[in-house]
Amino acid sequence: MDEGVKTKKTISAQQLFFLILQTQIGVGVLSLPYSVHTESGKDGWISILIAGLFVQIGIGVIWLLSSRFPDKTLYEFAPLLLGRLLGTIVNALYIVFFFIVAAQMLIVFLYLTSNWAFPHTPHIVFAVIVVGITVYLIQENIRIIARFHVLMSFLFIIVLILFVFIIKHLNVYYLLPIGSEGAPAILSGTKQALFSFAGFEFLLWLYPVTKASSKAKWKAAAGASAIAAVFYTLLSAFVYMFFSLKKLNHVPEPVLYMVKAVELKMIERIDLLFLSIWAIFAITSFMSYMYLAASGVAKLAKAKHHRKAVYVLAVLILPITFYTANPEQSVNIYEKISTLSTIFLFAVPAFLLAVAIIRNKREEST
Amino acid sequence: MKKWWIMFPICILLSGCWDERPLRTMKLIFGAGMDMQEDDRYSLTIEMPIEGAGGGSSGQGGQGGGQGGQAQTSQVMSEDGITVRDSAYKLDRKVGGVLDVSKLRVLVIGEDGAEKGLYSFLDALYRNASSPLNAKIAIVEGKAGTLFQSEISGEQLHSEYLYKLIMSAEKESMAPVTNLQFICISLLDNGSDPVLPFMKYNEKNKAVEISGGALFNGTKMTGTITPDEMSAFLLLADQMGKELSFTIPADEGRKLTILIEKSKRKMKVDTTNKDHVTADISLDLSVRVLEYPPDHLDDEKKLNELNKLVSDELEKIFTQTMDKMKMADSDTLGFGRQIMAKDPKKFEKMNWKKSYRSADVKIRVKTKIISGGVIL
Predict the structure, then answer these.
(1) Phi, psi of B55 (to 5 degrees)
(2) How much is the pLDDT for B57?
(3) What pLDDT is stored for residue B371 in this prediction?
(4) Is residue B215 classed as helix, strand or coil in its secondary structure?
(5) How confident is the model at residue B374 (pLDDT cuts 50, 70, 90)?
(6) Span B312-328, mean pLDDT?
(7) Cis peptide before A177, with omega less than 30 degrees from 0?
(8) Phi then psi dihedrals of residue B63, to 5 deg
């Protein structure tokens, strides 16, 4: 009925690639090497690499599931698979999950900006700015969001250039011997790292709106995750080679701390430059999750457009900024979301795929 | 593009004023000296440039009563407290304006303080996001506070002068390339120890001179090395700067000054031996002769002799340096790190700092004289 609007193929495979990449690389970048290191020590980079492999499996599952319903997003085919009531519950849970993830991102964002650059600026100011531009962008359709995400991707190159300056200060011996932390430690680090790949589930919603062959869509999603995995692994390997292990225990945002040591002829405090770039990565992820949550709410409310849902969610998310006073709390939330995310990113899609196979549900593209 | 005008309100709205730091209300610290007093109180000495007075004798020369016709361009203050921060707050109370450390260029630590442990001096700096981790750090003989008080001829800002001094020393391989950030990493690494430039005030020339290096065991300073030994250490650690020179005794009481052009180092740490660690360091040096009065550098036989002499003498310096570092329990070359990389279990079992002294370090030097300058 309303599929005329919803199933229009509006974005290209390249845009799909950048949408997923930008959603994956978000607020977590700065502290990922630290949070993984608490579990798997200097072998954290291996944990991240393994997490990247797991994510490829997750993408495979999602792709198989979505290719069974080439014209429908998860919000649309979940009721078909599970029945109206259960499907709606799953959708609602996803919406809540996305909203919590978005809120957590905002909390981390506010905490880090105030801690590193703007200690006296009230949180609410940054919250309003970030939410404001997010609303401004995501009230539009997915194609415009995709264009913005593609446009911002040139920043990856700047980050890579920044890292070239660090190479000469690295000490390979900090990494050796490789794998000495043992498999259990490395795997529990992998669990920590998985959440930083969150964003690939976006494929469940982007699959029907992408204009490309099914295989090209898989390539774009898998490629984005692979790039993210390489990026994260490189980043954390750099951090582990830069800091000795004991020092790393003191530095919860090692990436920023590392770039602080770099001095270019003209520019001091490169960490601030890096922070600004990171802010854009963080905001693009935040936008993606807010969009997912808003489009879900619109679906539940049977609204034609998700614009109103965006406004509602924006108003709801602002009070959360008052909750950011305590960094321990946000770490606590992070841990919980991290566990939750494995359910929503891996378990639920796998379960839905199993149901689809058992009930032999499949649709053809129109 | 119809809404281009929206740019202007956005520009105004996006710039907040909570975190503005206007220069006129600030007192920038360019140089700082820290000491530990007998009663374990930290004393902090800071140097701030006076606005409008820098850059020559013109301008408002009268400020602070210029002595001997020269305008006073910097303000030095000192205070002590229970922690470094405590002393900093006490200083802040005396200064008109907010003290700001983000432009710090040089941090000098007094010898006594460094012997009691360096990290406690630096902790406050590491905690502050705006602190300049690329500032230079050095240890000074005596008190760091007196260094900032003492007169230095021809220079107006101590911090500027010390910064340049350290930078040029780094270039000439008289000091290791380091800063607050790098030093912290090796201070907290149990597999290697830092080396810092060591300097002292020269009364006669009214200048500060780099008098070698300070050796550390963990965070505590445990010894010093001479400038020659510092150069030797830099070669051993493969951290040679742009140039590096040695003066060594040649035959018949004559002296020879050489410049190391290129250095190739190979280091191998052998952990297979049960009770002690052996390390092999081989150095391949290309040498240019800077000064050698009896010039027979075209004679091949003579050249070979000279080659042998140079490598023998260098080997002596290297071994002497190594011995000093061992006596100071300072694992500056990071042997411990290499053992950890090869055999982490063994490293845990042994008391590395104890075995370091008895480690068997073999140093082999091969030199090649490539040129005698523009004459033979």
Answers:
(1) 85, 15
(2) 39
(3) 66
(4) strand
(5) low
(6) 89
(7) yes
(8) -55, 130
When the pLDDT of each residue in chain B is averaged and rounded to a whole number, the result is 82
Tokens of A75: 């919000």
Mean pLDDT of all residues in B88-103: 87
Q: Which residue of B has its CA nearest to A121?
A: B18
Closest CA to A41 of A200, A175, A224, A221: A175
Has residue B137 got a pLDDT over 80?
Answer: yes
Closest CA to A325 of A118, A100, A102, A122: A122
B205-219 confidence digits (pLDDT tens): 888 888 889 999 888
- Output helix, strand, coil percentages for chain B, rounded to the nearest 5: 35, 30, 35
Say what the pTM is.
0.85
Do the beta carbons of residue B64 and residue B91 sit within 8 Å?
Answer: no
Nearest to A247 among B16, B133, B184 (CB): B184
Contacts of B63 (CB under 8 A, 6+ apart): B50, B52, B53, B71, B72
Output the 3-class SS for A107-124: HHHHHHHHHHCCCCCCHH
N- to C-terminal Cα distance for chain B? 73
| Minimal C-alpha gap between B190 and chain A (Å) | 8
To test the contact with chain B by mutation, choose from A260, A264, A275 the residue with the greatest count of B C-beta atoms within 10 A, namely A260
pLDDT at A292: 93
Q: Which of A112, A129, A173, A239 to mutate to test the interface with B (most CBs of B within 10 A)?
A: A173
Phi/psi for A301 (5° steps) reads -85, 0
Cα distance between residue A272 and residue A283, in whole Å? 16
**Set of chain A residues whose Cβ sits within 8 Å of the Cβ of B18:** 118, 120-122, 125
Check whether B183 has a pLDDT greater than 70.
yes
Q: How far apart are CA B235 and CA B232, in angstroms?
A: 5
Alpha carbon distance B134, B183 (integer Å): 10
More confident residue, B55 or A43: A43
pLDDT tens-digit map of B333-350:
888 888 888 877 888 778
This model of the complex carries an ipTM of 0.78
Pair A85, A273: CB distance under 8 Å: no
Q: Where are the domains of chain B?
A: 23-50+72-225, 240-376
**Domain B240-376's class?**
alpha beta
Cβ-nearest to B181 among A121, A175, A261: A261
Only one residue has tokens 């630096």, namely: B122
Amino acid (one-letter) located at A123: H
Q: What is the pLDDT of residue B51?
A: 67
pLDDT for B60 equals 38
**Residue-wise DSSP of A139-162:** TS-HHHHHHHHHHGGGHHHHHHHH
Residues of B in contact with A125 (CB under 8 A): 16, 18
CB of B330 closer than 8 Å to CB of B217: yes
Question: What is the per-residue pLDDT for B373?
Answer: 61
Kind and range of the H or E element at B134?
Answer: none
Chain B residues whose beta carbon lies within 8 Å of the beta carbon of residue A263: 134, 179
> pLDDT at residue B67 above 50?
no
Residue B342 touches chain A, beta carbons under 8 Å: yes
Residues of chain A with pLDDT under 70: 1-7, 263, 265, 323-328, 330, 365-366
Asked if B98 reaches chain A (Cβ–Cβ under 8 Å), the answer is: no
For residue B268, the cross-strand partners are: B280
> Is the CB of A244 less than 8 angstroms away from the CB of B191?
yes
Q: How far apart are CA A288 and CA B15, in angstroms?
A: 26
Q: Which of B133, B190, B334 sits opposite A173 (nearest CB)?
A: B334
Instruction: Name the residue among B262, B306, B309, B257 with its Cα closest to residue B283.
Output: B262
CATH H superfamily, domain A3-358: Amino acid/polyamine transporter I (1.20.1740.10)
